[in-house]
Amino acid sequence: MRAIQNLLIANEQTLMSAANDDHICQRLQDMVNDDQKNLGVLDTVIVQYGVKGEPKQHKNSLRRLRS
Question: How many CB atoms lie within 10 A of CB 28?
């Protein structure tokens, strides 16, 4: 979940730097802010419940996506 949330934030920030429209940039910034808050919630849950999982690579799934 953390990895996906971080990926979302990185993608939104990349889109913000490529966008030329102020309204779109503001919407993306709002999304980044929300996703950063969500990341904080995830961190709190991990600390409280001790749930710590690492992302798993599914090589077969990745191969199918590349084809």
Answer: 20
Answer whether residue 67 is part of any domain. Answer: no
Band (pLDDT 50/70/90 cuts) for residue 20 is very high
Burial of residue 42, with CB atoms counted within 10 A of its CB: 0-12 exposed, 13-18 middle, 19 or more buried? middle
Residue 60 lies in a domain: no
**Which of the four pLDDT bands, split at 50, 70 and 90, describes residue 50?**
confident
Expressed as residue numbers, the domain containing 47 is 2-53
What angle in degrees, to the nearest 10, is found between the helix axes of 2-18 and 22-49? 170
Distance of alpha carbon 7 from alpha carbon 13, whole angstroms: 10
